[in-house]
């Protein structure tokens, strides 16, 4: 009987793991996911992927100290798990432990040189610490593994802008224009901002302009809104089109396609 019970433990643990994944990814009920992963750990032999998912749930719940401990448990089982290093970096960044975050992002990239999110997060952390040169060098190294990635091209252009290296920034944005014609309008806007940065001698003004570039990177909606406005124009719904273009101009007053 005891042998049968022992044999069923992994199956019961797996059932809790699957249920935890449903809560984590589909239901986005992170507290319920945490409970299920903890039950899986308590019942079945330890697995790094269960600890990792528990850490993800704790991270979503903003229980950063617990997440750090859980990710460390995952690494005790699988020392080369890049996503656990990334989780440690995210939790450490949230706690303000930036040196630990940087080291952990770097380790994640060592184990997975194509880890896009780690490159982007580390580069933005470098810029936050006033190290745009490190950010640009990191992203250019990453482009060898992820050539022509739009987010990396935009971020390296932003870092180059902070260095007032307009030629370098233009080179990366021109690559974006060639590889992703649909991004051309956004790249053109950023080139205009970069030109402003190039002629600016005021550090505060430069920082504000670079912030506009970074903001526009996050604003993928700008192309969608432009396209929706164009659809309304083609359908003769000019009042609706005007509303769409005005939404863009509220944030980007000089954005040429919207004007």
Question: Main attributes?
Answer:
mainly alpha; globular; 259 residues; disordered N terminus
Would you mind describing this structure in some detail?
There is one protein chain. By secondary structure, the chain is mainly alpha-helical. Helices cover 79% and strands 0% of the residues. It has 14 helices and no strands. It has helices at residues 2-27, 30-43, 48-60, 64-77, 82-94, 98-111, 116-128, 132-142, 150-162, 166-179, 184-199, 203-218, 221-234, 238-251. The longest helix has 26 residues, at 2-27. It is globular, with a radius of gyration of 23 Å. It starts with a helix and ends in an 8-residue tail after the last helix. The model is unreliable at 1-6 (pLDDT under 50).
Q: In total, how many beta strands? A: 0
- Percent of residues in helices comes to over 70%
As a percent range, the share of strand residues is under 5%
What is the ordering of alpha helices and beta strands? HHHHHHHHHHHHHH
- Could you give a short account of the major beta sheet? none
* Class from helix and strand fractions: mainly alpha
Bulk shape: globular
Return Rg in Å: 23 Å
Number of helices: 14
| Alpha carbon gap, first and last residue | 77 Å
| Low-confidence sequence ranges | 1-6
- Mean pLDDT, to the nearest integer, reads 82
């Amino acid at each position: 009987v005891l042998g049968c019970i022992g044999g069923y433990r992994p199956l019961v643990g797996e059932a809790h793991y699957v249920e935890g994944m449903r809560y984590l990814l589909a239901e986005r009920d992170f507290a319920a996911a945490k409970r299920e992963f903890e039950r899986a750990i308590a019942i079945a032999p330890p697995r790094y992927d269960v600890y990792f998912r528990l850490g993800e749930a704790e991270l979503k719940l903003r229980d950063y100290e617990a997440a750090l401990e859980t990710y460390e448990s995952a690494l005790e089982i699988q020392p080369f798990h890049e996503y656990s290093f990334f989780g440690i970096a995210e939790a450490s960044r949230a706690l303000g432990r930036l040196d630990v975050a940087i080291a952990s992002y770097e380790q994640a990239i060592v184990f997975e040189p194509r880890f896009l999110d780690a490159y982007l997060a580390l580069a933005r952390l470098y810029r936050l610490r006033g190290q745009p040169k490190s950010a640009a060098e990191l992203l250019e190294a990453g482009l060898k593994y992820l050539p022509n990635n739009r987010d990396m091209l935009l971020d390296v252009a932003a870092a180059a802008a902070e260095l007032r290296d307009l030629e370098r920034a233009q080179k990366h944005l021109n690559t974006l224009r060639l590889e992703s014609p649909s991004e051309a309008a956004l790249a053109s806007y950023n080139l205009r901002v970069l030109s402003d940065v190039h002629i600016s001698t005021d550090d505060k003004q430069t920082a504000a302009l670079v912030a506009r570039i970074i903001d526009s990177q996050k604003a993928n909606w700008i192309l969608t809104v432009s396209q929706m406005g164009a659809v309304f124009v083609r359908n003769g719904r000019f009042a609706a089109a005007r509303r769409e273009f005005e939404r863009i101009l509220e944030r980007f007053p000089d954005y040429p396609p919207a004007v």
